[in-house]
Specification:
With 406 residues, the protein is of the alpha/beta class. Helices cover 51% and strands 16% of the residues. Helix 1 packs across helix 7, helix 6 packs across helix 7 and helix 9 runs parallel beside helix 10. It starts with a strand and ends with a helix. Bound molecules: pyridoxine-5'-phosphate.
Length: 406
């Protein structure tokens, strides 16, 4: 947990300490997104580390002592913060502490009563004010005060969901894999897709493979008629598949490489090597009014070529990050993805990410701005086998949407 609260101010009326703690945790968990967006700290530093914050909730007497000792102002105030020194920050390990915030809940209660707002709302403002100080703001003169207010309002937006939350699209291929194991008609990926949508997912993904090992043509046809969010059809750029896509008209097509022997899609599409084929496929799908995403490895030249062949979107292959055998290799893969995502977004491409993502490794990516959508299959369907599809989808949604660990 990124926030540590010490409470010396028990019993203040109308203060919901748990709700405050939840807000503080959410704010800290989303902070790397904010830092990255505004480039205020090195993005990869902030994203690789989990910033922590210590909060002391105290009384007027408690804050008077601190105000007197450190600032020679022996009287009560609402909030005081102490930032960790920049040098210490850079020398810090993965769990670096941003600083300490001291809030007098008593003063906050008086201020809330004066302005007629709930105490928790006032506490939230003070938390944000204290955090803005820690991030280097002050209100010593008019110009810096204006800048500080802007920073506070951005932090407030962040807390209240103003960050771009990625969409979560669920791949239901593995429901079809179970069905195909007995060659019957249960479980039906079309029913599963409805349940996934009811649980709140933003879209459905299926891969119609050349060998039809899981998803069948009938599934895609029915899904097109029943999916109410959006349907993403993954397929190889073959003549057969292009005809099917132009007929069915999914909301988006993701072009993937396909080898019959593989267990799952093993690597990204080599857009450079297959530039002409991909370009023709993109333009044919565009003529049918279908946007196209290219599933590629996080590599600069693949991204540039994807933009060059007029793709609308790239899906960054996260498999190497997900399967990294050590934390340091995972860090390297994460950095690669981060750079790729930035470049793709700068190039004007929409950015999806997927493959191998699960309940443990998705949170770090969920905090990366500019990833518009996650495509996740195996982890969710595997969990669904044990806890039910709705719960499995909701749990993944909570990770993808907030970046807050379960
Ligand atoms: N994205 C693409 C292009 C895929 O081929 C797959 C696997 O079918 C996924 C995402 C989902 O991967 P996983 O099942 O490992 O979550």
């Amino acid at each position: 947990m990124p926030v540590f609260i010490t409470d010396e101010a028990f019993g203040v009326q109308n203060f919901n300490r748990l709700a405050f703690e939840r807000q503080a945790q959410a704010l800290l968990a989303r902070l790397p997104v904010f830092l990255q967006k505004s480039d205020e700290l090195s993005a990869s530093f902030a994203l690789k580390h989990e910033p922590q914050l210590s909060i002391l909730l105290t009384t007027d007497e408690g804050i008077t002592a601190i105000n007197g000792r450190w600032f020679n102002r022996p009287w009560p105030t609402n909030v005081i913060s102490f930032a960790q020194q920049a040098d210490d920050l850079l020398a810090a390990g993965p769990d670096f502490v941003l600083g300490d915030i001291v809030i007098s809940v008593e003063t906050a209660a008086k201020e809330a009563a004066q302005s007629g707002v709930p105490l928790n709302l006032r506490m939230e403002d003070l938390l944000i004010h204290g955090l803005a100080h820690i991030l280097g703001e002050d209100h010593e003169d008019e110009q810096s005060a204006v800048q500080m207010r802007q920073r506070e309002s951005r932090l407030k937006n962040l807390l209240n969901g103003g960050n771009n939350m990625a969409d979560l699209c669920i791949n239901v291929d593995h429901i079809a894999t179970i069905r195909q194991a007995r060659g019957g008609n249960e479980p039906d990926p079309v029913t599963a897709a409805s349940l996934v949508e009811l649980a709140g997912a933003d879209g459905i993904v299926v891969h119609l493979r050349e060998d039809r090992r899981h998803i069948q043509d009938r599934d895609v046809e029915l899904l097109r008629r029943t999916v109410k969010t959006r349907l993403n059809l993954e397929m190889a750029a073959t003549e057969e598949m292009l005809s099917i896509a132009c007929e069915i008209r999914p909301d988006v097509v993701t072009l993937v490489p396909e080898r019959r022997q593989e267990l799952t899609t093993e690597g990204g599409l080599d857009v450079i090597a297959h530039r002409d084929t991909v370009k023709r496929a993109v333009s044919r799908l565009h003529e049918a009014g279908i946007p196209v995403s290219l599933f590629i490895n996080p590599e600069e030249e693949q991204i540039r070529t994807a933009a060059n062949v007029q793709a609308d979107c790239v899906e960054i292959h996260t498999g190497r990050y997900a399967d990294a055998p050590s934390p340091s290799q995972q860090d390297e893969e994460f950095d690669r993805i981060l750079e790729a995502v930035r470049l793709a977004a700068e190039t004007g491409l929409r950015v999806h990410a997927g493959h191998g993502l699960n309940y443990r490794n998705v949170t770090r990516l969920a905090a990366v701005s500019f990833i518009d959508e996650f495509s996740i299959g195996h982890a969710v369907i595997a969990r669904a086998a044990l806890v039910g599809l709705e719960r499995a989808v909701r749990e993944m949604l909570s990770l993808v949407k907030s970046g807050v660990p379960l």
